[in-house]
Amino acid sequence: MNATSVARPATASQHRAAAQPLHALALLRYGAPSLAFAFVALPLYVYLPEHYATRYAVPLAYLGMVLLLTRFADALFDPLLGRLADQLLLRGLTKPAMLAACALMFLGFAALFALPALLPFSAQSGWFTALFTAALLLTYLGFSAASILHQAWGATLGANEAQLARTVAWREGLGLAGVLLAAIVPQLGGAPLLVGVFAVALVVGLTLVWRAPAPSPHHALHAALHWRTLFVPLHNPRFVALLAVFVTSGIAAAIPATLVLFFIRDRLDAADLSGAYLFAYFAAAGLLVPLWLRAVRRWGAARCWLLGMGLAVAAFVWAALLQPGDRWGYALVVVLSGAALGPDLVMPPALLAGVIRAAGHGDQLEGSYFGLWNFATKLNLALAAGLAAGVLPPLVVAYCLLPSALKLVSAALLWRHFVRGTSAQTGAALHP
Fold it and tell me: Whole-model pTM above 0.85?
């Protein structure tokens, strides 16, 4: 089968039920699981290592190695999970599949926090490593499967760029709320409360999403879901261009996320304000999303993303000028970079949906595209960690100047491929 043979006119997307804007309740129902999904991201990266190391004397080096290897293995499965998502969308099994993936995710999540109490760590214990790795993989794979399916579903819920951006904004906005909740809960009740609140959030989210608007019917032939569909998105030059913008911008965002606590502590001497700064950052991002949605209707997703990149560069150039004790100055950095986070979350998936439809792959290969997209997201985190470690001395270079340079490169790519006279190619596919 030729890799491009799956492409065909996206007539279904021209008659999709989402031609009328979805009301807020429908978007709330669709986006609700994202609040629970946020618990899997932040606690596993921040709280789980601290919980294992301080309460159960598990070495940090050991934890880092196992977390890195399992996360890498999880990333390799994303393209396959994207292909599976297309099959599930084709067969109308989106909602049952999300329930199954979330059940596996919760089972792994609960096992992770129960394991060290039930089976004490020992450097000679292969059982601990085997069970720890299995619980991590179960959590990661369930989360990845549910997330890719959720994203591919959302790419069908909108007839134009503004509607797609609104769908993504509800999903990502609820995810930001979940990040804030997941950061607070462990401080109030430790691991038991974290697992309990996660369970409640997941049940509520899945109950709501069950009544959300169904994805547009997929019309691809079964034969079109051959394993070669894993590579079809890479034959789409506009997807490759968007992926280049996304990866460059994502690394630029992930580097300061990796180093933020070091910068606050070692550069600003303001470790006591770390929690307040992080809360303000995510709160600013969430509160400003409605303004970005209004801007999309006027200027389009690509230009709004470009503006967000400009804000991020301004924030980190300003951060490079700060001296120890400049606490209010860094508060401005927090607000500007938080404002820039909204476009980073909302605009890329909206643009990706347009790229998918412009290629004739709408209602056919959303899962395959988002499988590769999620793989790139995880690659961003790994590359950012490597780059940050490689240029750590001096800290200002790693935290401020390197991200600014990468954002400028990303902005140049975005301007060239999606703003300067070419964005109409994508936008045309979004308007029935």
Answer: no
